[in-house]
């Protein structure tokens, strides 16, 4: 490992050192505000450091890491999302009983796990990253110790994640048996791509899909989603929905593209099936939900279903679409969960749609942000979600994936129905306020999110240009 | 740039109205009024100035938007969009005035939504980039959803949801059609663009073209609406506040008709002909079924809503007749229906403000109490049934004649709609203003504000009835352009040798160009020609 290699890992080192520093600080002085600001700075520093290492890419470090534009772009997205999650966590975590500073330590470790996935080129790093992420998430999900459903969600996630990790490992082992290598790029070299993939590799990939599908909450591995989304503290739900899924998506795309799995008939059918099932299950189950967090959970299942269509497109332009979609989805989801976390207090979690009745007339600003987020999820023009969905449909049509695109459209309409239900509640005339006042911090975060949703919805050209220029595999 | 300004004025006024409306509701109202008037004046000023039409486009402007996909901000104005924009701003002003007293809660947000809808409609009438068109097409839905859902009547939530789902679902089908067209065009020409001008005349296999056209049709026919897809309309109209019903009936439905004229016919000339028989049938079914349902209603607002279904049937019939006469009728019908049905909704709103019911059975004998309102009601009921001298007569007659050239059976069936219209229109007058008093209401006649609104609408419909030439002239280049690639659909081919003796029906029909009479153009040579054609009758 040369000095150059070391330098090009700077963002990761920053994220790895930050929790250690926080631990030391806590042992000397327990101050919530200091820890919070340190975390914000550390995330920012890690993000800024990405720009300094741009000169040394692409860089392959040993057999383990590959630091390229694609990985760094994902890393940037993950870090910004983690930063936004930190912002919406401030008030929410502050008012919890018991120790609170440790929350940020674990936020860093889980982000580290996620970040590793973005640059992994080897099964070992893949597994290491995913386990670091999972183990941190068990703690984060169960962080609200006073609430039974938070702990229940944590345990549920623990058990299911362990099982899915076992599948993942078994899949890796199968592929290793067949190819004798654990490096993504080498597997293809050993066996050829597309339809030449041996059955062993395909079944290995199938096993791995269980683990990956679990993380992405794809049907039929989605059972945990609503419970975890509901039980976890709202900012953690946002984290699970964005950073965790984004990182897994990053590695899935890299792995799948290096296998050229879209050229393989079996994998094509499997992924299509999973995508269609996820869309329909997610949306149909969301219709009857009365709990906003659960509703968002089901909606995330559907959204991941839309997103993995892109795997089958199999071109760099498809990857561009998925990156744009992810960015839009991250902003939107953090917006929605941000509203929930800002409106929740220690005593009362603002998660029932009933609670949001007439919110617009009492707190117009926060209701607008939630409305924008929901409209963006539904894909209505003027919001980033519209352009994102358009991009996916566009690339899907180009690749001729008609069945998938038509199911996407049908699901957009189903999805609209339950998003509208929430929006209707926001604007209905009755309703009493159980929800607390907002702080300026929350307002700033929400302002950033609202503006991003609108800017990306009205003038997305610049971001698309950046993505096209930077991201490719 | 003027076209962009039209939209920007509305959008910025929308936000301004919202913000200031919290302090003082009057500000929101005045800002909306001023913004719409400014737009109207801008339009008048610029239309007078631009004398050199560029291939039929009065103003044409194209800016980059998302170059990666070949999407541009392409706005253009021709006679058809000009006429529609005048209607939009005129009725926009009316809808602000009629909401002056009716809307007393959340006034700022109301006007925000109102102006946003109008901005969306303006965008739809001006966009010449298909992506941009879809953008505006969807943009008008959300504020309309709020308008119905917040300020509507009892069942507003269900109605607004239904409205949104219907239009959104059909809009998505159009979206997929737009993208398919983009790729088909790109495949054959190598140019990937959403630009309307370039997509015109795309060569593609008939079956592909037909499928793409169906996608477009889905959106337009739901908006219009045609009969099997009309379900959202009565609910949305009935539950919406008066301004909402006015905009829905007078403007939103017109975007569907406009889409047929602007996109279906020019983009898919031969496919549209294939679809024509079905299209005409849908039109006729709409005319008759809508009229029948209108007659059966006891809720006055619902009744008026169903008359829209019936009147819009004429539009579809006309569009799929593919001749100039019918298209002139379609344009006049869009304007006339906008004004007359809009006026009826205004009237229902005024009645509702006074008696707080829309139930026909509780009304009756109101003429004594509110003679002015009664007179206005009578005028617009007459307009609705197609009384000569009012706009609807010209429109429906032109459409029927045009359709007659294309398909006699359909035209004859459609003309039955005029009788049905007479029945339901007279029923309005009879049940509301005449007949026996069912309840002894205490009510005042129209006040000054309401009289001004009604007077404006009456002037407009009478003017359209007596002197439709400006509208027809303005839209004529656009219509001819639309029909350019289109072979005239004529039911009758010239017979090889005309049968001798008796009344020559074919000759009669072919010589019966009513356009010559209707417009009373003072061209002596033309008049001479008309007489010559009729000599055989004498």
What can you tell me about this protein's structure?
The complex is a heterodimer of chains A (473) and B (538). Chain A is 77% helix and 1% strand. Chain A has 473 residues and is an all-alpha fold. Chain A starts with a helix and ends with a helix. Chain B has 538 residues and is mainly α. Chain B folds into three domains: 1-170 and 229-255, no CATH class; 317-491, no CATH class; 505-537, no CATH class. Chain B has helices at 2-23, 25-49, 79-102, 107-126, 130-139, 141-151, 156-189, 196-199, 206-223, 232-239, 242-267, 269-296, 300-319, 324-355, 371-385, 391-406, 408-433, 448-466, 469-483, 505-511, 515-519, 524-533; strands at 59-66, 71-77. In chain B, strands 1-2 form a two-stranded antiparallel sheet. In chain B, helix 3 packs parallel to helix 14, helix 3 (79-102) packs across helix 19 and helix 13 crosses helix 16 (391-406). The model of chain B is unreliable at 490-504 and 511-522 (pLDDT under 50). At the A-B interface, helix 18, helix 19 and helix 21 of A face strand 1, helix 5, helix 6 and helix 7 of B.
């Amino acid at each position: 490992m040369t000095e150059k290699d070391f330098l090009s890992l700077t963002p990761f080192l920053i994220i790895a050192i930050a929790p250690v520093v926080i631990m030391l600080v806590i042992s000397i002085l327990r101050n919530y505000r200091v820890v919070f600001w340190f975390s914000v700075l550390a995330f920012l520093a890690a993000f800024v450091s990405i720009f300094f290492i741009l000169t040394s890419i692409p860089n392959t470090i040993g057999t383990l890491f590959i630091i390229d534009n694609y990985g760094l772009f994902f890393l940037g997205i993950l870090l910004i999302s983690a930063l936004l999650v930190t912002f919406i966590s401030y008030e929410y975590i502050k008012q919890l009983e018991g120790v609170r500073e440790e929350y940020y330590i674990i936020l860093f470790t889980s982000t580290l796990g996620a970040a590793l996935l973005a640059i992994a080129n080897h099964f070992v790093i893949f597994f290491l990253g995913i386990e670091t992420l999972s183990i941190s998430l068990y703690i984060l999900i169960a962080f609200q110790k006073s609430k039974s459903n938070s702990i229940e969600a944590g345990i549920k996630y623990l058990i299911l994640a362990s099982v899915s990790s076992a599948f993942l490992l078994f899949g890796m082992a199968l592929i290793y048996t067949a190819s004798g290598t654990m490096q993504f790029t080498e597997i293809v070299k050993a066996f050829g791509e597309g339809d030449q993939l041996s059955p062993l590799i395909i079944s290995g990939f199938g096993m791995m899909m269980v683990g990956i599908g679990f993380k992405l909450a794809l049907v039929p591995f989605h059972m945990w989603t609503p419970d975890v989304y509901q039980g976890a503290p709202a900012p953690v739900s946002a984290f699970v929905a964005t950073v965790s899924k984004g990182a897994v998506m990053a590695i899935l795309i890299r792995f799948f593209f290096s296998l050229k799995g879209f050229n393989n008939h079996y994998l094509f059918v499997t992924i299509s099936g999973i995508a269609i099932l996820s869309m329909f299950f997610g949306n149909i189950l969301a219709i009857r939900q009365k709990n906003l967090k659960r509703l968002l959970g089901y909606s995330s299942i559907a959204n991941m279903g839309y997103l993995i269509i892109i795997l089958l497109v199999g071109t760099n332009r498809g990857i561009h679409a998925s990156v744009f979609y992810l960015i839009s989805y991250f902003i939107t989801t953090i917006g929605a969960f941000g509203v929930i976390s800002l409106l929740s207090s220690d005593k009362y979690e603002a998660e029932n749609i009933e609670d949001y009745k007439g919110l617009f007339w009492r707190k117009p600003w926060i209701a607008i942000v939630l409305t924008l987020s929901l409209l963006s999820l539904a894909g209505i023009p003027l919001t980033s979600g519209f352009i994102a969905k358009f991009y996916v449909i566009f690339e899907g049509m180009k690749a001729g994936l008609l069945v998938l695109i038509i199911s996407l459209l049908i699901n957009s309409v189903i999805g609209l129905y339950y998003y509208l239900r929430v929006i209707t509640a926001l604007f209905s005339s009755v309703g009493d306020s159980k929800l607390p006042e907002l702080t300026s911090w929350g307002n700033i975060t929400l302002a950033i999110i609202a503006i991003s949703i609108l800017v990306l919805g009205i003038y997305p050209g610049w971001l698309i240009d950046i993505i096209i220029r930077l991201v490719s595999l | 740039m003027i076209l962009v300004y039209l939209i920007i004025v509305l959008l910025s006024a929308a936000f301004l109205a919202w913000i200031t409306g919290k302090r003082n509701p009057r500000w929101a109202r005045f800002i909306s009024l001023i913004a719409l008037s400014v737009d109207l004046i801008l339009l008048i000023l610029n239309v007078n100035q631009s004398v050199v039409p560029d291939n039929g486009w009065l103003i044409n402007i194209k800016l980059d938007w998302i170059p990666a996909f070949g999407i541009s901000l392409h706005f253009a104005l021709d006679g058809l969009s000009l006429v529609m924009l005048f209607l939009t701003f005129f009725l926009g002003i009316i809808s602000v005035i009629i909401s002056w007293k009716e809307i007393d809660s959340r006034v700022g947000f109301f006007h925000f939504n109102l102006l946003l809808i109008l901005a969306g409609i303006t965008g739809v009438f001006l966009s010449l980039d298909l992506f941009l068109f879809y953008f505006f097409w969807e943009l008008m839905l959300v504020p309309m959803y709020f308008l119905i859902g917040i300020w509507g009547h009892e069942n507003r939530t269900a109605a607004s949801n239904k409205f949104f789902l219907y239009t959104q679902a059909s809009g998505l089908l159009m979206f997929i059609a737009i993208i398919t067209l983009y790729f088909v065009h790109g495949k054959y020409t190598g140019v990937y663009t959403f630009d309307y001008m370039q997509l015109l005349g795309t060569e593609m296999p008939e079956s592909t073209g037909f499928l793409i056209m169906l996608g477009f049709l889905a959106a337009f026919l739901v908006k219009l609406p045609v009969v099997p897809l009309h379900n959202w309309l009565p609910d949305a109209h009935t539950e919406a506040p008066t301004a909402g019903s006015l905009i829905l009936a007078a403007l939103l439905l017109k975007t569907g008709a406009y889409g047929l004229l602007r996109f279906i016919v020019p983009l898919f000339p031969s496919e549209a002909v294939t679809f024509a028989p079905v299209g005409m049938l849908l039109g006729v079914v709409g005319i008759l079924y809508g009229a029948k349902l209108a007659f059966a209603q006891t809720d006055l607002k619902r009744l008026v809503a169903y008359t829209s279904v019936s009147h819009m049937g004429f539009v579809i019939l006309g569009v799929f007749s593919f001749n100039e006469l019918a298209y002139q009728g379609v344009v006049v019908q869009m304007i006339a229906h906008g004004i007359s049905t809009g006026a009826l909704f205004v009237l229902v709103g005024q009645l509702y403000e006074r008696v707080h019911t829309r139930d026909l059975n509780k009304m009756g004998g109101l003429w004594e109490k509110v003679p002015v309102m009664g007179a206005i009601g009578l005028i617009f009921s007459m307009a609705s049934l197609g009384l000569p001298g009012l706009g609807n007569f010209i429109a429906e007659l032109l459409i029927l004649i045009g359709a007659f050239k294309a398909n006699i059976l359909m035209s004859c069936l459609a003309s039955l709609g005029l009788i049905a219209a007479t029945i339901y229109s007279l029923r309005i007058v009879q049940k509301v203003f005449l007949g026996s008093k069912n309840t002894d209401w205490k009510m005042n006649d129209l006040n000054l504000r309401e009289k001004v609104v009604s007077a404006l609408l009456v002037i407009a419909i009478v003017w359209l009835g007596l002197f439709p030439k400006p509208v027809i002239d303005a839209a004529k280049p656009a219509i001819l352009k639309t029909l350019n690639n289109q072979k005239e659909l004529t039911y009758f081919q010239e017979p090889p040798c005309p049968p001798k003796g008796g009344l020559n029906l074919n000759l009669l029909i072919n010589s019966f160009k009513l356009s010559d009479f209707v417009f009373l153009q003072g061209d002596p040579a033309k008049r001479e020609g008309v007489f010559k054609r009729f000599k055989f009758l004498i």
